[in-house]
Specification:
Helix 1 crosses helix 9 and helix 3 crosses helix 4. It is built from 9 helices and 10 strands. With 288 residues, the chain is an alpha/beta fold. The protein has a single domain, classed as Rossmann fold (3-Layer(aba) Sandwich), CATH 3.40.50.1820. Helices cover 34% and strands 22% of the residues.
Length: 288
């Protein structure tokens, strides 16, 4: 069984105001102390309307630790999840969230992990859905990322039609429903403004994919109803020398995962085994 250690990071808000809070945990390998190096570390990014304790993230993190590596999970500061780490109780933070805020959160988590001795070499990076896009953007610019794995990843930060964006601008917000909790979750103007300003620069996922030069496992279900499988195929075409596309027959956006995961669906167990094996091969061998 892995040993779980929690952490909390407070950082300045980019546009001023109340500081941002990032909460997470490190899953240490069985028998390893919190300050002991491990054969490798994987940092895990959740997606849109997700959080570190949702569905398969604890299952994946535990599987990584059970394989002798360390896993680090966290809630983005704009996830909307509160201090209980389970419920969307700070929806104002969700409203104010942006892609660049998530990129800065990820950089803070990596820096804190180095300060604590949880990362002392090249590390693995994992992302699901929107978190996959964030992971691609970060990995393209961080030479210490030694392997990348994405599940159901987005290939662009431009996710809305022109009509949707016009309504967004007219109202000053866009509402989305959380299908699990039935809460209305509001996205603010900062997100739309920066996507339109930076989708050809810092937030250009396709350009970032072309810069990936480390092993990259691209896992995507051919029945994904949220992010179509053609996005995975597009990403793989952009990095032909390093991409390892794995199209999972019958796989949906979460590979059959429920929240919480008690008895993992066969496809979830399959892609978890494959992803853990991928990191074990490419991160455990990374040079110090």
């Amino acid at each position: 069984m892995s040993q779980i250690e929690t952490f909390e990071i407070t950082r300045d808000r980019p546009r001023g105001g109340k500081p941002l809070t990032i909460r997470g945990e490190a899953y240490h390998p069985n028998g390893a102390s919190a300050d002991e190096s491990s054969p490798g570390t994987v940092v895990i990014c959740h997606g849109f309307k997700g959080f570190a304790h949702w569905a398969f993230f604890p299952y994946l993190a535990a599987a990584i630790a059970d394989h002798g590596m360390r896993a680090i999970t966290f809630d983005f500061s704009g996830s909307g999840v509160g201090p209980d780490r389970e419920n969307f109780t700070v929806l104002e933070e969700f409203t104010a969230n942006t892609f660049t805020q998530e990129l800065d959160d990820l950089a803070e988590v990596i820096a804190e992990s180095r300060r604590r001795g949880w990362i002392d070499r090249q590390f693995g990076l994992f992302g699901h859905s929107r978190g996959g896009g964030v992971a691609i953007l970060h990995a393209s610019r961080d030479k210490d990322v030694g392997a990348l794995a994405t599940w159901s990843a987005i290939s662009s930060t431009q996710r809305w039609t022109e009509a949707q964006k016009q309504d967004w601008r007219r109202l000053g917000y866009m509402d989305v429903e959380n299908a699990r909790t039935h809460q209305t979750m509001r996205m603010g103007m900062a997100l739309l403004d920066e996507v339109e300003a930076l989708s050809g620069g810092r937030l250009d996922v396709a350009a970032a994919a072309r810069r990936i030069h480390v092993p990259w496992l691209i896992v995507h279900g051919d029945a994904d109803e949220t992010v179509l499988v053609k996005e995975a195929e597009f990403l793989a075409e952009l990095a032909p020398d390093v991409a390892m596309p794995w199209i999972v027959e019958g796989g949906n956006h979460g590979f059959g995962a429920t929240h919480p995961v008690r008895d993992p669906a066969p496809l979830l167990a399959l892609v978890t085994r494959g992803t853990v094996g991928f990191f074990a091969e490419h991160i455990a061998r990374a040079p110090v």
